[in-house]
Design a protein that fits this description.
This protein has about 260 residues and is α/β, with parallel strands linked by helices. It is built from five helices and 14 strands. The chain has a single domain (about 1-240), classed as Nitrilase/N-carbamoyl-D-aminoacid amidohydrolase, CATH 3.60.110.10.
């Protein structure tokens, strides 16, 4: 069984309405290339800035994006800051099957922690029968985060990110490792361009279960699409059984 996935690399306009329209265009373009799941960057709606731009999931402008995704038969994931009962969160909205707040970043970092609270749970969603684990940027720096998704059944680990220019070497290591450690596909969607005086370098790519790049965005903005094959997951996990061989951490002693 296969699943076509697209990762969109875009620069935020810093205006929610404009960003929604640009996201809708990206979803339409990805659908034309056959994608069934489209991933957009961290805090794309309104841009990566602090204090953050807070998005209302009931904003009628989001209907445009939801309708485009639904009409094209696509599930879209887009980053936004949301205001919830526990406080503000860096989150993912799912569109195309109705507008849903599906995930909150579990590991805010740096200045983020002064403005948002951490999410309290990992999340899997179903896309065409595939189990998809969700993450946002710093989450993916922790092997335990991706491993918890894989143990729960994830076949694809999605990372919506915003990496500052100059950090590409770390980002690529993280997501190649998350793929090969767990024998699962990884799709990274990175913010690009300038926002609030900071430069972002994208890094959007789709990795196979051995950490090899299947597709990537080489220009400042663009879309990469790849078809994922479930049989490759099974073959990789059989050849490299780190997930099956996982043991409880042993006690550490000092000698």
């Amino acid at each position: 069984m296969t699943l076509s996935v697209a990762t969109a690399q875009l620069a935020s306009a810093g205006d929610v309405g404009t960003d929604i329209s640009r996201a809708a265009q990206a979803v339409d373009q990805a659908a034309a290339a056959g994608a069934r799941l489209v991933v957009l960057p961290e805090l794309f709606l309104g841009g990566y800035r602090f204090p953050p731009v807070v998005v209302d999931p009931d904003d009628p402008r989001l209907q445009e994006l939801d309708e485009v995704a639904a009409e094209r038969g696509v599930t879209a994931l887009v980053g936004a800051c949301l205001d919830g009962t526990r406080g503000r969160t860096i989150s993912l909205l799912e569109l195309g099957r109705g507008i849903r707040h599906v995930y909150d970043k579990q590991n805010p970092c740096g200045d983020e922690a002064e403005h948002v609270v951490a999410g309290h749970a990992g999340v899997l969603i179903d896309v065409d029968g595939w189990s998809v684990g969700l993450s946002i940027c710093y989450d993916g720096c922790f092997p335990e985060h991706a491993r918890s998704m894989a143990v729960a059944g994830a076949e694809l680990y999605v990372a919506s990110v915003a990496y500052f220019s100059g950090s590409a070497h770390r980002r690529e290591v993280y997501y190649r490792a998350r793929a090969v450690e767990n024998g699962m596909y990884v799709a990274v969607s990175g913010l690009a361009g300038q926002c609030a005086g900071q430069a972002f370098d994208g890094g959007s790519a789709i990795y196979d279960p051995e950490g090899r790049i299947l597709a990537s965005v080489e220009s400042t903005e663009g879309i990469a699409v790849a078809r994922l094959d479930r049989s490759i997951i099974a073959a990789t996990r059989a050849a490299h059984p780190m997930l099956a061989d996982l043991r409880e951490p042993a006690a550490v002693v000092r000698r």
